[in-house]
């Protein structure tokens, strides 16, 4: 996703609140550098604990989306769209808990070590 596409998405997220006359607010969670481990299920206990706390915070404060800032495919990366690691991490699986499951999750993928 290029910068202009990302800015367009952010602007579109703001428009509904402006139409209602409310003060515009964009609430999101940014997560980066969460590469996990090379073997299934690919996440660590620390990642799952962080996901639980993020879900709790989102439930209390709200959020419009979660933005993955990349550096999330460590060790061998992914091979193709069918790679199980991509299917787990690309869909936000470590963050797929509680109130955050239904949020949009744009992913700036990359970062193989």
UniProtKB/TrEMBL annotation:
Alphabetically ordered keywords of this record: Hydrolase, Signal
Signal sequence annotation: 1-21
GO molecular function terms listed in the Swiss-Prot or TrEMBL record: hydrolase activity
InterPro entries linked: Metallo-depent_PP-like (IPR029052), Metallophosphoesterase_PAP (IPR051558)
Entry protein name: Acid phosphatase 5, tartrate resistant
Provenance organism: Homo sapiens (Human)
